[in-house]
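Summary of Year 1 activities. Much of the first year was spent building the evaluation harness for sequence design. The harness presents a backbone, in tokenized form, and records the residue chosen at every position. We chose the following record to illustrate the format because it has been used consistently in internal testing since the harness was completed.
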């Protein structure tokens, strides 16, 4: 460009800007044709039509009204104020417009006789009681509009003192929006001031709302709208149609009771934020919108956030002073890329928003109709979260000598789940979070607001942060999630092997009954001696030692328990091989473990097929004479001599994964030893207990039953098959055997307690359920059957975490509880809820459950890649801190903390 021309442009910059604005205004005005006052009857705008439908179909129609209270200190003329209102309504024809429906067609009509009057409650020398004034306020607030006739504005003036007034104003939403409220208050002030000073005010407007509605419904505008709908369809392709924030009990109503939480950003942080925006040449709106989207992303564990942005939709400058329902909502999509910096994201999404603004003429309902696949009752279509920003620098508005202070009462209802309003003004920033209390909990919203403040502090102190590095949880909340909620550390004999605990009970009470099955029993001494003989045999004949895998394929019997104890005492790890497994599965397990020997029985050995290794038949091991290992020593083996430690394997149990071949989970002695601490503390097992052995040996709940009894000096009673024939048979078995504690599948117990006429359980004191979700219905049925005489424990945990990792005593649940939590971590267990980036999920948010602690398995047998994938380094490991686990197990289960 020529330098002289460039200099001339610079010197005439102000004139050029004025010229461009004037040409733009000419272009804008060419689009609008004034039809009023010649035409007083016309179509409704899209927004009006939607508002008419909502107002006529909803019982809470007063929700669709703007309600403001103007506080005025000073003298005031009631008659002059009423005249000012009359001039205001004459100026804005939309305030004196009524609505008609005929044969399915909606029309609006501007009327000249609008019948406004100012309701007035005088001071009466203070004789009005507070109760009377409150009643008048409520009466006015709940009064309704008749859309078919009458004025769309109502006012009540209450004089509360000699020079103190409250001016209550209600305007139907079909005739107004948030922008219009400011216009109305400004114009009312101007008319009042003009009347008391006998000056003139221009009452005419370039355009009335009916002109805008006529333009919007014109074929030219409708064609432009249709052209833009394809953009929105592509823009919203793949976007979430419902947000993923944790919800509570959503009702089916379109309107929800509302609550509000407010963030007041202190002056220092507000100034830091403004400085941040200035340095990076970005708007405060863009920064707050991106920051809010990031918080919503974290709390919903979604990188795709869809929110509605209300826009003024007054593209022509000549509409800026016109009252009416112009506001439109644009769906705005924020995709969080953790590799991007915060500023990069702000600038990118700001450009996207500017592109959307060019399409603000497209009504939101048209976008919904064009893009939404289906509507869900009780859920706002497409948009359930709104975000808005407004600069609310309050002008010095007066009525006479009285300054106006505007109060915006909190809304009672909300159409969406969450409405976030950022209001800048008076040297500060407030962020209002209005939410549906039946959908989002107080605790969740409070946590999100706190996180937003932390995020603002974080980005202003590190302006080049990547999303992945941004700190938004406070130190207090992080400490809560990592430490306080995992305060489970307790000492336990971590150097011991599981059979050491059993041998301790043998020494304490050798003649106590250890195992019972179908009339036969074994004392602790007898069980120990027979297991020792098996152990000596395995070592001398087959070289079994630490981490040697030994198969166990035998039906439920005393010999089964002897075999398990014998394998452990020899230093080996037992591998349960259920005789009822399909031949193909048994063959896979034998091949994968490469066991050289299987302990079995005569009738079970046939299922081993072509197994080439040794088979030791345990038939008769429980008898006093004539069994396979009769010639071997009955003495305990010395662990140190055989090199066995608590870090060696106790067992390998195969789990059926959702895909692929079964996985062999390798569990070490110390993990099983630690689990006994949980059993002692939560189950309170003593030598007087009689524990039911219900599960097959191939499920890890068997570990709880078997070792929970034998390591505490209790009696283990093996069930028979007859007790499974019916519910009465099961309870009868428990009563006959004096069972005090049973660990059962959740589904089995749920079925059992449905029968309230079942036989009373005389001895049972505790039932532990697990394996699937426990319903609140089952808990209630349990209470109906047993009252508080039988405690019900809900347990959770994968095999990879040694039986269970968390538990809950259901007697602690409140009567109003809707779900049954999985409880709190067991002793020396650690639970972390992490998002898809393995960052901490905020409290109450859904994330994946990771387990750590003494119960975590070594890994999967012969599956190093899968082990590395599912058993990971703990990113929050605290070296030297008791209870902090180096490794975590990735469960794949989605959970969230609930308010306690």
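For this record, the design step produced the sequence shown next.
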């Amino acid at each position: 460009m020529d330098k002289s021309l460039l200099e001339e442009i610079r010197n005439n910059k102000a004139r050029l800007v004025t010229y461009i604005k004037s040409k733009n205004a000419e272009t804008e005005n060419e689009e609008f044709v004034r039809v009023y006052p010649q035409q007083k009857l016309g179509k409704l705008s899209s927004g009006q039509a939607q508002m008419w439908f909502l107002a006529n179909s909803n019982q809470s129609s007063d929700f669709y009204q703007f309600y403001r209270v103007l506080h005025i200190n000073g003298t005031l003329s009631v008659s002059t104020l009423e005249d000012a209102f009359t001039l205001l309504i004459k100026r804005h024809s939309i305030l004196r417009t009524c609505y008609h429906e005929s044969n399915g067609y909606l029309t609006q009509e501007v009327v000249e006789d609008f019948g406004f009057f100012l309701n007035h409650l005088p001071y009466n020398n203070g004789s009005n009681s507070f109760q009377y004034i409150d009643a008048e306020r409520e009466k006015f607030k709940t009064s309704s509009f008749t859309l078919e006739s009458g004025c769309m504005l109502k006012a009540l003036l209450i004089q509360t003192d000699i020079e103190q007034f409250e001016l209550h104003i209600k305007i139907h939403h079909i005739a107004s929006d948030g922008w219009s409220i400011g216009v109305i208050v400004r114009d009312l002030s101007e008319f009042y001031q003009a009347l008391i000073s006998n000056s003139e005010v221009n009452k005419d407007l370039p355009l009335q709302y009916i002109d805008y509605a006529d333009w919007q419904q014109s074929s030219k505008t409708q064609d432009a709208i249709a052209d833009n709908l394809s953009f929105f369809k592509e823009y919203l392709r793949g976007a979430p149609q419902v947000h993923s924030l944790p919800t509570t009990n959503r009702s089916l109503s379109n309107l929800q009771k509302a609550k509000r939480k407010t963030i007041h950003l202190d002056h220092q942080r507000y100034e830091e934020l403004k400085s941040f925006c200035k340095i990076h040449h970005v708007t405060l709106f863009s920064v707050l919108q991106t920051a809010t989207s990031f918080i919503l992303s974290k709390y919903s564990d979604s990188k795709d956030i869809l929110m509605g942005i209300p826009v003024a939709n007054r593209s022509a400058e000549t509409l800026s002073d016109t009252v009416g329902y112009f506001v439109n909502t644009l769906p705005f999509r924020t995709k969080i890329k953790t590799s991007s910096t915060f500023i990069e994201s702000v600038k990118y999404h700001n450009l996207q928003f500017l592109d959307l603004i060019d399409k603000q003429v497209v009504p939101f309902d048209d976008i919904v109709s064009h893009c939404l696949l289906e509507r869900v009752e009780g859920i706002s279509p497409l948009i359930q979260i709104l975000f808005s920003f407004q600069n609310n620098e309050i002008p010095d508005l007066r009525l006479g000598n009285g300054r106006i202070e505007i109060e915006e009462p909190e809304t009672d209802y909300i159409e969406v789940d969450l409405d976030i309003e950022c209001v800048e003004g008076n040297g500060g920033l407030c962020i209002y979070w209005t939410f549906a209390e039946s959908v989002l909990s107080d605790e969740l919203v409070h946590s999100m607001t706190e996180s937003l403040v932390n995020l603002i502090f974080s980005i202003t102190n590190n302006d080049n942060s990547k999303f992945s590095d941004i700190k938004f949880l406070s130190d207090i909340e992080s400490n809560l999630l990592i430490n306080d909620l995992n305060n489970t550390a307790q000492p336990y004999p971590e150097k011991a092997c599981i059979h050491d605990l059993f041998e301790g009970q043998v020494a304490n009470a050798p003649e106590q009954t250890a195992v019972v099955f179908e009339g036969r029993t074994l004392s602790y001494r007898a069980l120990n001696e027979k297991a020792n003989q098996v152990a000596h045999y395995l070592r001398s004949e087959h070289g079994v030692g630490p981490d040697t895998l030994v198969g166990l394929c035998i039906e439920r019997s005393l010999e089964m328990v002897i075999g398990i104890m014998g394998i452990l005492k020899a230093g080996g790890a037992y591998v349960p091989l259920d005789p009822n497994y399909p031949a193909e599965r048994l063959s896979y397990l034998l091949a994968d473990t490469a066991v050289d020997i299987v302990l079995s029985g005569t009738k079970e050995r046939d299922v081993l097929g072509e197994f080439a290794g040794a088979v030791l038949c345990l038939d008769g091991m429980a008898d006093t004479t004539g069994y396979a290992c009769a010639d071997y020593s009955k003495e305990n083996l010395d662990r140190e001599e055989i090199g066995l430690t608590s870090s060696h394997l106790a067992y390998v149990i195969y789990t059926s994964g959702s895909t692929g071949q079964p996985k062999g989970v390798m569990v070490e002695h110390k993990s099983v030893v630690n689990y006994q601490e949980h059993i002692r503390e939560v189950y309170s097992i003593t030598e007087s207990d009689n524990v039911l052995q219900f599960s097959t040996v191939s499920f890890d709940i068997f570990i709880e039953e078997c070792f929970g009894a034998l390591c505490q000096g209790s009696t283990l009673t093996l069930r028979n098959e007859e007790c499974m024939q019916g519910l009465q048979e099961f309870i009868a078995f428990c009563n006959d055997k004096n069972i005090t504690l049973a660990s059962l599948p959740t589904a089995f117990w749920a079925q059992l307690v449905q029968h309230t006429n079942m036989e009373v359980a005389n001895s049972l004191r505790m039932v532990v359920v697990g394996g699937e979700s426990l319903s609140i219905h089952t808990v209630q049925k349990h209470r109906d059957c047993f009252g508080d005489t039988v405690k019900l424990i809900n347990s959770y945990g994968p095999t990879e975490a040694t039986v269970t990792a968390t538990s809950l005593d259901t007697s602690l649940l409140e009567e109003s509880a809707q779900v049954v939590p999985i409880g709190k971590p067991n002793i020396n267990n650690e639970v972390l809820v992490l998002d898809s980036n393995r960052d901490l999920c905020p409290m109450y948010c859904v994330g994946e459950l990771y387990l750590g602690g003494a119960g975590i398995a070594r890994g999967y047998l012969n599956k190093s890649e899968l082990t590395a994938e599912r058993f990971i380094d703990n990113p929050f490991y605290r070296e030297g801190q008791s209870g902090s686990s180096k490794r975590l197990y990735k469960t794949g289960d989605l959970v969230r903390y609930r308010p306690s």
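Confidence is low (pLDDT under 50) at residues 1-30. Quantitative recovery figures across the full test set are reported in Table 2.
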